[in-house]
């Protein structure tokens, strides 16, 4: 399996809450609720995240399709995300970014479109990412001259995670999923 397929599969796995190799609407509800609880989000923040997961689910059902049980398989998700004819920007804009953006907005308490180290580590701790991997990712994303990660830099890193090699993708690399993978 190529590196990009592995990364897309890892992202899928974070929402496959019953670990059956399929996403269904129940997985989406459970992952959104669990993530909001783990992060201790406000009602407004929780609403943002839940709405984002619902929006992504509706898009995925329409564009990836489901089996006769209303489920999206891991294989279908990976094939859709990496199809050479697919507009990658469309996939990221409709599947990756809505959830990432909602989480960002819920965690960016002061609305400055930057995450400091504590906010960034809190996000990845909710996904059971090892603290060391999160710290390394934060340091790579922020660079040497600033004390935060920008929203634009984070968006680019998420795109790179899906579509570039691990060396070019500073967002957690192999640290993305722990053996006890949680919600994403």
Automatic annotation (TrEMBL):
<dbReference type="InterPro" id="IPR011992">
    <property type="entry name" value="EF-hand-dom_pair"/>
</dbReference>
<dbReference type="InterPro" id="IPR002048">
    <property type="entry name" value="EF_hand_dom"/>
</dbReference>
<feature type="domain" description="EF-hand">
    <location>
        <begin position="3"/>
        <end position="38"/>
    </location>
</feature>
<protein>
    <submittedName>
        <fullName>EF-hand domain-containing protein</fullName>
    </submittedName>
</protein>
<dbReference type="InterPro" id="IPR018247">
    <property type="entry name" value="EF_Hand_1_Ca_BS"/>
</dbReference>
């Amino acid at each position: 399996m190529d590196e990009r397929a592995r990364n897309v599969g890892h992202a899928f796995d974070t929402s496959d809450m019953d670990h059956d190799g399929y996403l269904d609407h129940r997985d989406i509800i459970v992952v959104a609720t669990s993530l909001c609880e783990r992060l201790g989000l406000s009602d407004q923040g929780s609403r943002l995240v839940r709405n984002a997961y619902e929006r992504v689910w509706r898009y995925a059902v329409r564009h990836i399709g489901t089996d006769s049980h209303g489920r999206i398989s891991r294989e279908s998700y990976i094939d859709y995300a990496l199809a050479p004819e697919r507009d990658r920007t469309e996939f990221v804009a409709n599947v990756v970014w809505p959830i990432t953006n909602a989480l960002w907005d819920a965690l960016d308490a002061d609305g400055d479109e930057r995450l400091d180290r504590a906010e960034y580590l809190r996000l990845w701790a909710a996904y059971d990412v090892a603290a060391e991997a999160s710290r390394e990712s934060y340091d790579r994303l922020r660079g040497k001259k600033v004390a935060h990660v920008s929203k634009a830099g984070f968006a680019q890193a998420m795109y790179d995670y899906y579509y570039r090699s691990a060396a070019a993708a500073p967002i957690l690399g192999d640290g993305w999923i722990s053996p006890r993978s949680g919600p994403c």
